Amino acid sequence: MSYTVNATGVCKSFGGQRVLDQVDLAVPAGSVLALLGPNGAGKTTMVRILATLLRPDAGTATVAGHDLLADPVAVRQSISLTGQYAAVDDMLTGQENLEMMAQLRHLPRRDVRARASQLLADFDLLDARDRRVATYSGGMKRRLDLAISMVEQPDLLFLDEPSTGLDPRSREQLWDTVRRLVDAGVTVLLTTQYLEEADRLADTVCLLDHGRIAARGTPDELKASLGTDVIRLRFADDASYQRVAGALASTHTDARLRTVEVASDGSAAEVLSLLRSLEAAGTPALQVSILRPSLDAVFLSLTSMDLPAADAEEMAR
Amino acid sequence: MSLPATISDSRVMVTRCVRRSRRDPEAFFTALLLPIVLMLLFVYVFGGAMSTGGSYANYVVPGLIVLCAGFGAGTTAVAVATDMGNGIVDRFRSMPISGSSVLAGHIAASLLRNLIATALVIGAGIAVGWRPDARAASWAGAAGMIVLFILALSWLAAAVGLLTRSPEAANAATFVFMFIPYVSTAFVPAHTMPAVLRAFAAHQPFTPIVETMRGLWMGHTSTGASVGSQALLAVAYCVGILVVSAAAASWLFRHRVSQSG
User: Chain A to chain B, count of Cβ pairs less than 8 Å apart?
Assistant: First the structure.
């Protein structure tokens, strides 16, 4: 497999504070890797190192086949960086931003305007092309940010907390756009503190905690590492709830919501037999839901706080 | 980085910074209105009480040029500091373009803003009775002095903007450029000041810069020193400031690191 990013043993400290501690990272070409972690975990520092903005204290890395320290200019030719807040000039118009970037990428003069117009159309910004970016919504700024990144298709696109500050609808749109870029062959390194974002976009998730990789795998692998599915049963009245809570081997109960949770393999047969036996006992369930462990649960169980899976699930809602 | 690429990148950055200046009301005010307002203020409000041996307009024009440049340096430092806090500069730094082109854009825009302000000071000066007594060669010499001075001050302001990291701090730090001209021969002859200030005025860069312009335009300096000696000193100061500031700014631009994590 060919890797667009291959980093080993990357360390970085700021003023004695260790921000990255022996981080290894491999991003297969054409895939999306999410660096997931809380604020201060070192995500942005890792991105800044791989984007040649910071020198690592130790460790080596290649980006798109070029050594980070030996040939930073070749690395810069292969990447595009979108910042934590949209990396666009908000005193210029959308069109001016795109034309400026096209000129900085040394597109032939006659192609600059056409490329800008095409990107404005692709990223649904034609109506706003002559407005200053300062007047754009958060979602529009992000779309412009991505459009700028596609002036020349990069081998590797850094998305540093792309959905920070976006409303849910703009976030969905952004995710669609990112998926389109991935389909076009762009490799993406994404940082996020939103588990849902990693779940929805990433092929591989690396959980970063206090500068170390605490876990890595596909979103499903990480969830599976947390164990089984959970069947949650809700009852209509307190009497039924009390009887079932006393009788079943539950993993979690909630008297206020009248819910009982039991571990399960998630198979239809098991759910069916459980519901039948409840009915036979005269305490039928009012509602039933099946919960997969979410990435939130993985996140919370692997980073400092140790909470049972179901609690973690609850907290994420 | 090849030279044609660097030149092309710098041109793009100059366009960008000039556009930003044109759209920034504060920069606009500082460059276009302040020179006229200050000229009227100094000549018609303070001027009557000043005794500088002749019309105050004939004395004060070089002083107002450096004072406006001081305000202009504030604009430049704030523009650079604002830019450094912007995601877009990180993006520029992660692109295969020379870092110097980003600063070149700011310096060129600063030069342009300040030359416009200077032209307005000169125009307003003539309107309120400034009557320079100079041949073309002296005008050319004064123009050269102004360009060199503004270039040096622009680089110094850029270095301050890079060093201070926030627009507010940059603004505060550049207040010094707006006050130091007062303790020079810019607005009153130094011999009217108490001994300590007189000594400071005699040994700070604004005095030879102002006296060079004054000497070239009016035929004599206010201190009695020869124009040639003042010009030599002024050029030495400006070149020194220019070289140190440009080196510092370039270094700071390459090494400025944000520690967010």
Answer: 78
